[in-house]
């Protein structure tokens, strides 16, 4: 790659190389005694499985890679008896995944689900650790997804449950009660399967007003007449995601649901617990920043764990005795790495060491707010270039994702190149309550488009960039909105970058994976009943209006947003003589996991926008 200096101070090509080489570690799981952990790390250029001792104090031990296949590892879960690791593997780097099991020493690695192109989803281990849950979504309309309990040594499957959009969230200690999740995006509801009698019962009323994201089964708190309790992260009939406890008993008995923890300024994002159900670990999302909190179910006391060594935390796990927590932590200046915190002393200790990139060229974003035309206040993170000459509005995917102040190599590379980045959380983003995340459903999509125009106006009003030097960029849903802005609001943006976005929602529903399309109707509209709306908000219907230069990027193995979405918009623009570039990424699906791919992508985006802004 030739070295391109976009200003006399920063070699952006070199910086892109440093940023994409700054590997991280995430997704930890611990042994019951919390002395060892398994996690995912891309320190060798692709996400792999690693095992390491948990050392608090003294030099960090060297992690050991555990080889499964040449495909990226997505997640890992350690069995309760410590005998096995179960992993999610992205088959060929694409959207469909396999489930593998392997001994912690790397022996006896085998695939237990996902052969022959089947999409398999890793669920929880049973509390004894002898079997693991695997779910296979339906491949055709009208057929249910099916879940099994799988014995790792033999691969023997025992049927567990089936439902249209099934997910298995937890299994009780004696394997009698199972929490199941079903429903479209934003409307996921939970039921409890009592395997004695094979009957299911609603966990909480399904009103269609929200979703339940996490459910854990543990012994009920001392003094509660119920033997079991389900601890839920939910916003069903609530303004924000909160912690709710539902007492449970045999034969479908339920007590009265009780809100244990709620905040007006934050949403509950993750939840874990010790085996006894006496100590709960809560990870809060406070406007994009993270906070960890403990809750003692016996006393009701809540204790905030201060000193989080980064702005964003994820995949927090608690040891079975409740004494230890391992969590992935990142910030704008450093990638994800694993930290240990003692739940009694609240002392933080780094347990993996990721190399920080050169920090002198990086920027810390500020949180900006602006008002959309209908009065809705929208916020976003502004990566202001030290030597600004242009700007880009970056739109995240989902739309239920959230832009947060983590380590984002592309934002940093653009800022170094003199292009400030405003990454807004337009309506439909998570983290701001139930009504905000639902505000873009169906016809609300037009309000989301207006939010993007307001973001561009904010950049002009605050002097970050001139109107003629602002681009719109995004990936997945954000790529779709990028195309929509160029088609429906021509002249607002000087250029666009669409990464794996939908160009026509009708062909997206037709060609996407069946389980993805079925779940998405609640967000975009029903492909049959709402066909007129889908046509109206599809960029391909207004492709004649697209005049701004456009870069389109797509992974060849993407079956979430199928590659046809990219190819049809590129072909349509070329037929009309418009300026469009196309980058097809080989060996990648919807998420680009290989460091070499990410480096190619960021370099191309920086060069494209530099030339046109």
Q: Look up the CATH topology of the domain at 359-612.
A: Rossmann fold
Shape: globular
Number of helices, counting only DSSP H or I runs of 4 residues or more: 10
Category by helix and strand content: alpha+beta
CATH homologous superfamily heading of the domain at 359-612: Alpha/Beta hydrolase fold, catalytic domain
Order of strands side by side in the largest beta sheet? 29-30-32-31-33-34-35-36
Strand residue content: 35-45%
CATH class bucket of the domain at 359-612: Alpha Beta
How much is the average pLDDT? 93
The separation of the N and C termini measures 22 Å
Tell me which CATH architecture of the domain at 359-612 applies here. Answer: 3-Layer(aba) Sandwich
Helix content: 10-25%
Feature tags:
alpha+beta; single chain; Rossmann fold; eight-stranded mixed sheet; four-stranded antiparallel sheet; globular
What can you tell me about this protein's structure?
By secondary structure, the protein is of the alpha+beta class. The chain has a domain at 359-612: Rossmann fold, CATH 3.40.50.1820. Helix content is 17%, strand content 35%. The protein is built from 10 helices and 36 strands. An 8-stranded mixed sheet has the order 29-30-32-31-33-34-35-36, with helices on both faces. A 4-stranded antiparallel sheet has the order 1-2-3-4, with no helix packed on it. Strand 11 and strand 12 (157-163) form a beta hairpin. The longest helix is centred in the C-terminal third of the chain and has 18 residues, at 595-612.
